[in-house]
Amino acid sequence: xxxxxxxxxxxxxxxxxxxxxxxxxxxxxxxxxxxxxxxxxxxxxxxxxxxxxxxxxxxxxxxxxxxxxxxxxxxxxxxxxxxxxxxxxxxxxxxxxxxxxxxxxxxxxxxxxxxxxxxxxxxxxxxxxxxxxxxxxxxxxxxxxxxxxxxxxxxxxxxxxxxxxxxxxxxxxxxxxxxxxxxxxxxxxxxxxxxxxxxxxxxxxxxxxxxxxxxxxxxxxxxxxxxxxxxxxxxxxxxxxxxxxxxxxxxxxxxxxxxxxxxxxxxxxxxxxxxxxxxxxxxxxxxxxxxxxxxxxxxxxxxxxxxxxxxxxxxxxxxxxxxxxxxxxxxxxxxxxxxxxxxxxxxxxxxxxxxxxxxxxxxxxxxxxxxxxxxxxxxxxxxxxxxxxxxxxxxxxxxxxx
Length: 402
Fold this sequence. Notes:
CATH topology: Growth Hormone, Chain: A
Radius of gyration: 20 Å
Oligomer: single chain
Number of strands: 0
C-alpha cells in the first residue's frame, strides 16, 4: 500500500467514524422537538430508536465478515450511501411508524462502520495507539456535533432539516469514495503496514473472555449515558442551559467535544505504557464520577458527567488495541464485528432502560447508580487480562507517512 493510498483510506475511515456517530445521535436531540410537534411523550418517542439501535450491533458480524472476505473500502462506500439515504428518509417520515422504520434502516447501514472502518484504519496505520486516539476524536466529534447540528437546524429550520442536511452530506462522501476506488486511489489490501507478533492461544482465549464482558459493560455505560444525557441536561441544568433545546444541545456538544479531544492522550498512553493498565485506570476513575452524577445538579452534574464520558471514551484506544493485539489480522473485521455486537448491541437495552427509568421515576438517579455498578464490575474483569510487559509492539516514533 502506498503512503498516499494509506493516507486517503485513513481520511475516509476517520470521516466515517464521525458521520456514523453523528447520524445515529441526531435523533437523541430531535426527539425533544417531536415531543412538542407530535404531542407524544419522551419515553414513547425515544423507544422508536430501539430496533435501529439493535441492528447497529446485531448486523456488525455480517458487516465484518463481508469486510474481511469482500472489500473494506467497498463496504465503507455502502455505509456512507446507505446511512445517508436512511437519514434523509427519517427527515421525510410522516408519523411514528415511518420514523421507526427509517431509523431501523439507518441502524442496519450504521452497523457497517465499526467492524469495517476500524479494521481498515488498523491495517493502514503505523502508530496504532495514536491512530486509535485520533479515531476516537473523530467519533466523539460526530457525537458532539450531533447535538449542536440537530438543535441548530431544529430551532432555525425544522426537525426534518436536522435529518436531511447531514444525510445529504454523507451521500456526497460515499460518492467521493466510489470515485476514489474507481480511479485507483483507494484499493483493498490484505497486509498490515505494521505487522505484530502473534500472541499465545491461551492469552487469546483469556483476553476474548475478559474483553467480551468489559466491552458489554463499557457499551452499556456509554450508550445509556448518550441516550439519557440530552433529557438529563434539560432537567438538571435548566438554570445554565435555559429552557430551549439549543442550550441542552450545546452542553451535550461540549461534553463530547471534551471527550473527543482527550482521546489523543489515551492514544499517546497506549503507545508508551502497558495496554492493560491504561485500560484499567480509565474504569477505576469512572466509578466515583458516575456515582456523583446520580445526585448532582447544575454545574457539578455537568462536570461529573463530562469527566466520566471523557474516561469512558478515553478507554477505547486501549480497548481497540487490545482487540487488535489478540486477533489474527485475517479475521480482524470479524472480531471487531463481534465486539460491536456487544458494545453497540447493548444500545436497545440502554434505550429501554432509559425509557423505563425515566417513565417510572421522572429522573435518572437510578440509571447513574446502575451505571456506576457496571463500572465496578468492569474494573474487576480487567484485572484478569493477560499481563502486558510492554506497550503496543511497534515503533513509537511517528512515521513520516502518518
